[in-house]
Amino acid sequence: MIQITQKQKKVLFLFVPLFLIAGSLYIILSTLQNNIVYFKTPTEILDEFTTYPKNTRLRIGGLVKKNTLQRESNTQINFILTDFKNSLSITYKGILPDLFRQGQCVIVEGMFYETTTFYAERILAKHDENYVPRELQESLKEQNQIQYYANCQTG
Amino acid sequence: MIAELGHFSLILSFICCILAVCIAQIGLIYGHPHLQTIAPRISLINCFLLLFSFACLIYSYISSDFSVINVWQNSHDTKPLMYKISGAWSNHEGSLLLWLSIFGVINYLIGYHTSQSHLPYTIKIQTLIIQHILMGGFIIFVLLTSNPFGRILPVPLEGRGLNPILQDPALAIHPPLLYIGYVLTSVNFSIALSYLLWNNTNINLGLCIRNWTICAWFFLTLGISMGSWWAYYELGWGGFWFWDPVENASLMPWLVMTALLHSVMVAEKRDTLKAWTTTLSILGFLLSLLGTFLVRSGILTSVHAFSVDPERGIFILALISFYSLAALLILSLRIHTLKSVYIFSPLSKEGAIIINNYFMLLFLSIITLGTLYPLFAEVFSGIRISVGAPFFNLAFIPFVIPLLILMPLAPLLNWRKANFHILLQKVIFLIAACLFVFLLLIIFTQANAIPISLGLTLGLWLIGGSLIAIKKKIFPLQKFFLNPWQHLSQLGGIIAHIGVGILSIGIVCTSFMSQEKIVTLTPNSSVPLSGYTVQFKTMKNQKIANYLEEAAFFNILDDQNNVIAELMASKRLYDKPKIITTEAAFMTSFWGNYYITLHEKVADNAYNFRLYYHAFVNFIWLGSVIMACGGIMTLLRRKKHVHTNAPNI
Q: Which of B362, B369, B610 sits opposite A95 (nearest CB)?
């Protein structure tokens, strides 16, 4: 049995919790860093495209351009996402949300992999038909697209 | 007329709050008992006024009085009666009024239904003063920015209707349960503040707040699990927890209350950890406020957020900041008065409870970070990011595992100082059994072997360890029946741990053993799903009450082609407001749920469906309910007097 003096005990009681807390914080923060999803508009994507590392997870917000929806197979679709300045082609495999319509605002989440087509794994369309993602509202306003924003709001 | 009465009684109740605070405070300063009794009396009057006000709102909903803006916005003539009533709290204004009415009832309970031994008279008066200060602030908030009784002219003929995803029995009771929990945390807050402000250090804080903490925790647990159940079967996404900001905001006070629930035991029994318990009490209520109001202020984007009215947001932020700053200031100025001298070994119940608190606060910081980081990143650097479920899951797992390992050991420890060898003796067989099961599982599981075996073993370990603790409590029976209530109340905590074990088994199995298929089916075609065959029979359009329904009918067949269930999955287009909802088809069994949702039409007669088999998913809600029941069992204990110098009035 190792004998611990009172002083050593105090030091132990101080440092063990500190060490544990520091360790936990490190784990949490590194997890956070690896799991941040950036929100971009198509214009931002095209401006910064080369700067992204491959396989970065992104969220892109925009409008589903009218008459661009194509069904590749029963569960796979292609469409064009636009912010009225620039457009991106999106491929999505899976089930569309009920409120997914052409001409409506959506957010797609996925990756580019090594191509110029964005592979969406998730499509978010909110329950409210008049919904415009807050992030998109701001960027549409920035780009003086307020009338489009209004159209977007009325569906 | 009725609405005006409601509005008027809300104003009256605000005046009552001011009166209660001023008169009772004067009574306290001059030591005048008659003036002090004003506080409980006004709490009774206020309870009546607020309940009456809420009843007026409900009456306006039932009678479909569309001249009230709030009713016009959220109700409709053809809605079933139950949803007319629940419509009253489905919106920002109404839910605030519900919050206030619950507050009124709880103040009344503090005033008239607390015993001298649990809440000595002077502390009661002081607590009620603080409660009325809080309440007054929120009544003013409702009156100035979110009045539910506003009128509209000309009177509309028909209301705009309630969002159909909210027309659901689970959602009719989920907000009241959660709000009761939120409001109950205010009692701890006020008792803790009165403890600090009036220097009541000779009174056992743990005993004062124990029962309130248990009740608050019970309602929060039930409210949160009810919300998750609703999201699972109504939203049609097939998940039980989405790490949505609103869900996170409700989990934050829950975690603090869980920490408090444990530390309060130490505070009560050993009269130590007082500063820490006080801090947790204050934090719990502040986070409840965050849960109730911050999400309503439109700062965080969420599927739940009702209002995006900036004026309202600023008012509520100012109010919450005021209360928080005041409370934290008092805490920091007075915390030195709470000195604890009790010494205990790290291997003891006290030590285990401190470890529990450490984990709870760690989880709290993970959730706070994930929820608020996007907000700060946007404000300070303009980068728009989101932090979703992957972060929370990955950040939680490394800490949940050690927590679950340590959890069943805590009830086996002695107070003050435990012996490691005796502890080891108690659990050595269980450890061996768990290792054996772990090996078996890892050999015989095909997919996701490590997470499944680890999760199941941990669940088993937790339940087994708790059973050992229960056995120690019940036997010998003579000792148990000598003081049955006391023992039953101690069993409550262990049963709550069993609930956690069942919950974690449910989460692990659902996450790793479920099946999901996306298929395109035409009538009379079929597809296998986890042991059964799902046969799509036919498609039908029907018009029902206030919606149009596109319904797909299914048979579930077993391996001998016997029909064991007929199911319907549908999409509804509601009339008012025009909203599409997905109604999932369900087959519930002990081992799991079969879950089918209907999606888009891809060709003539061909539809996309999503089929799920969720293994053990019901364990999640079963575990939560067991947890909550275990928690409430701890109330069974008989009262005891331990305050040193409680005055007799």
A: B610
- Candidates B337, B315, B269; CA nearest to B489 is B269
Separation of alpha carbons A112 and A56, rounded Å: 8
3-state SS class at B531: coil
Q: Which residues of A touch B163 (CB under 8 A)?
A: 127
A133 touches chain B (CB under 8 A): yes
Q: Is 50 exceeded by the pLDDT of residue B38?
A: yes
Q: Do B395 and A28 touch (CB under 8 A)?
A: yes
Check B582 against A98: CB less than 8 A apart.
Answer: yes
For residues A129 and B580, the answer to whether their CB atoms sit within 8 Å is: no
What is this model's ipTM? 0.78
CB-based contact B36:B125 (threshold 8 Å): yes
Residues of A in contact with B599 (CB under 8 A): 95-96, 98
- In this predicted structure, what is the pLDDT of residue A141? 58
What does the pLDDT read at residue A105? 79
Q: Which residue is listed with tokens 């405070």?
A: B25
| Strand partners of residue A8 | none
Query: Looking at beta carbons, which residues of chain B come within 8 Å of A35?
Result: 387-388, 390-391, 394
Kindly determine whether residue B386 and residue A59, on different chains, have CB atoms separated by under 8 Å. yes
Pair type for strands B585-588 and A118-124: unpaired
Distant-in-sequence, close-in-space partners of B257: CB < 8 Å, separation ≥ 6: B181, B185, B213, B216, B217, B220, B284
pLDDT at residue B626, as a whole number: 97
Distance from CA of A98 to the nearest CA of B (A): 7
**Cβ–Cβ of B520/A75 closer than 8 Å?**
yes
Tens-place pLDDT, residues A54-94: 677 888 888 888 888 888 887 888 999 888 788 889 999 88
Cβ separation of B579 and A129 shorter than 8 Å? yes
Q: pTM of this prediction? A: 0.90
Q: Report yes or no: B17 and B136 within 8 Å, Cβ to Cβ.
A: yes
User: B51-85, pLDDT tens digit by residue?
Assistant: 999 999 999 999 999 999 889 888 888 788 888 89
